[in-house]
Amino acid sequence: MEAEKMDIRQLQYFVQVARLNSFSRAAESLYISQPTISKMIRNLEVELGADLFYREGKSIRLTDAGEILLTKAQNIVESFVSLSSELDSLRNLKQGHIRIGLPPMVGASFFPAVIGEFHRRYPDVTIRLHEDGAKKVEDDVETGLLDIGAIVLPVNTAIFHCFTFVEEKLELLVPAGHRLAGRASVPLRELAEEEFVLFREDFALHDRIITECVKTGFQPKVVYESSQWDLISRMVEAGMGIALLPETICRDIDRTRISVVSLTEPVIPWQLGMIWRRDRYLSFAAREWIHFAMGVLGERYLPSGEAGQPEL
Q1: In this structure, are residues 43 and 37 in contact, taking their beta carbons and an 8 Å threshold?
Q2: Model confidence band, residue 88 (pLDDT cutoffs 50, 70, 90)
Q3: Which of 89, 121, 151 is a domain's end point?
Q4: Residue 145 and which of 24, 85, 254, 291 are 20 to 30 A apart at CA?
């Protein structure tokens, strides 16, 4: 029986399997069944006359032939997606689909109202949200799994366009009755002997806090890590340690159980920005989202009320 001729879907499926190192996860992300994606990949292997993956139980990895095809296929798929997106923008105007990455703390604090307002204005545009730490969101925007992401700045501006929508600083949380409770401010060096409760390693604040502590002259003693700011604050309340959290989060802290103190020497900035790839086509819907979010977030959260004009 003659193998099917290679088409763009086969290459798209192959690239997704290679990116995720899994047939099942690729099938889920593409909203197709695993047998369908397995058959498409097998047809591609038959047509090329070479195995593309080593199958070792439930794990897979690329063969030499797979590595060669991946390099070429990524360029072909990106070119096809860019062409399709441009044509869709011309045909459908403000209809479309946007993939946006949001760290949990950022998404819960800043985006529900923005997304709701955007949906009311553009009901035919669908938004798929992906919640991950800021570092994972940045990686997924770079690889093309996401169109746009909200991250903790700074970011590599050679790769990404960016606009800033929040400029705050970190504040110190200590339990009521702590030796530092009630102080107007505390320099970072005074925390050298304290035990810290931090965000997990895939959150940008994890590395930011440790870096600032090391620059100040000590390695922080980390006793607990979490992905949830409210759990971190409860750990502080229970006396497990201290924490450094953004001003926005600290406004919701129960001040009867936790003391919030200004952190100085140094002040650790917390800036949020929306990013997208410089070299990748943005759909009309994604452009509308950026302009809309820039206006709403800049007006609500930046002191000047202006986030600046993004480059599109």
Answers
A1: no
A2: low
A3: 89
A4: 291
Counting residues of the chain whose pLDDT is more than 90, the rounded percentage is 52
pTM for the whole thing? 0.65
Rounded to the nearest angstrom, the gap between the alpha carbon of residue 138 and the centroid of all alpha carbons in its chain is 5
Terminal-to-terminal C-alpha distance of the chain: 48
Q: How many helices (H) and strands (E) does the chain have?
A: 11, 12
pLDDT exceeds 60 at position 93: no
Token duo for residue 43: 């047809």
Backbone angles phi, psi at 106, to 5 degrees: -70, -45
Pairing of strands 53-56, 59-62: antiparallel
Q: What pLDDT shows up at residue 92?
A: 57
What does the alpha-carbon distance between residue 295 and residue 293 come to, in Å, rounded to a whole number? Answer: 5
Q: Which of 89, 108, 142 is the last residue of a domain?
A: 89
312 lies in some domain: no
Q: Report how far residue 271's alpha carbon sits from residue 129's, in angstroms, rounded to the nearest whole number.
A: 21
